Amino acid sequence: MAIAYLDTLSGIAGDMTLAALVDAGADANYIERQVQSLGLENVRLQFSTTRRHDFRALRLDVLHPAEHVHRHLSDIEAMLERSQLTARERGMAGRIFRRLGAAEAHVHGTDIESVHFHEVGAVDSIVDIVGVAVALCNLEIQRIVASATPTGTGTVKIAHGTVSVPAPATAELLKGVPIRACGIEAELTTPTGAAILATLVDQFGPLPSMQINRIGYGAGHRDMPEQANILRILIGSPLDEDRDDVVVLECNMDDITGEQLGFAIEQLWKSGALDVFTTAIGMKKNRPATLLSVIARPEHRGRLEDCLFTHCGSLGIRRTRMSRRKLHREVLRVDTRWGVARVKVAWPTDGLGPQSPRVSPEYEDCRQFAESHQESLEHVFQVVLEAAQQAVEDLQPLQNLPTGPGDRPFESDRRGPPPPPPPRPNGSHDHHDHHDHHDHHDHHDHHDHHDHHDHHDHHDHHDHHDHHDHHDHHDHHDSGHDHHR
């Protein structure tokens, strides 16, 4: 499994990201061909070596005729559909544009399709976003980790006038993304850069344990006096990809209703929990109670603890760090008579001896097919399972598979061969494109248990409808601020 770590010491922009990926080994000629298939007139990508504070880096210049076109999201999506991009490249770029569109719509109080993509709809930004998607696929990156990003300070000029840094759409995009204080008066994180972080990054934090194989340096267009204006990308493979660390949060509750508990569990899932479960317990004075347990990634601990305090009324939360061993798994899409269904495939490790892959159809897909076509859930489940087993027979276990989080954003694009459709009286063939749905207080009784093996199966939930926007600002420099797209 290839991991990319984004070192955003000097912020992040679309052109810096693409330049860093090419510097790390992505095929520049292939990227340019894929970008040109969008139908943009006379577009060329020019990569050149430059220096920032005596450090070598690669710079990207997008060469194209001047244009004054304001595109809508539907225009950009149509452009992607007409292109020769692969399904994964097209899907990744589309998610970024939709996230940008939703953020822009939110800050302007309108709907996503009414948004005029000003700077973001410009050629430079389209090239940056599509180029990054193509480069990530070309390098076969399966997981992205990033450091906290600085936004910079001061003001910046955009199509709507002068605004504070971070620009409104950038700030909207950075909701949930760790940022850090920085006194540099410049726009260090642009809307395109923020959208890349918000859409594609699986985890924020320090450099993960990995064997570094490639390093790329992407230069911003401004040479800042304070530090090198460079985005560094480190690409490598994990040292122990079938193990990771999780945090288990627990609290005892004896004064919460079933409805309140159910609502709290829903909010925990939405806040990024890997698993949530309850256990019936007895407390002092023989009171029956409920033990609520939450399994989470360490970087999500703070917001999940806040969620527990808010919705469970708990006065304290126990926190335990555990080591977890996992099977390699992926999400496989298979064709059925009702449409495409997702199945989870777990590949046994060598130490378990000769075993067949473990296949589990996605419940939500099966449920939708059963409801839409008046079939029994059992029948739909069996048909999807047979289609998945037939597809898996043609696949070899891969060692370079994402082990989380679910199918965002690197869900496998592999599809199994379509099985012969089962007999059906009404002969309908409806196909549905289905989307997956899915630090503050003092904490008592803190326990940090290391080398503990957690054998809970986890479900990487939840849909990622990337409906959020931006406007990328090009060639607007206010009072010397570094504004990169």
From TrEMBL:
InterPro entries: Ni_insertion (IPR002822). The keyword Lyase applies. It holds the Pfam family Ni_insertion. Residues 396-485 are annotated as: Disordered. Residues 434-474 have a biased composition (Basic residues). Residues 475-485 have a biased composition (Basic and acidic residues). GO terms for molecular function: lyase activity; nickel cation binding. Keywords: Lyase, Nickel. Transmembrane segments: none annotated. Belongs to the LarC family. This is Putative nickel insertion protein. It comes from Aureliella helgolandensis.
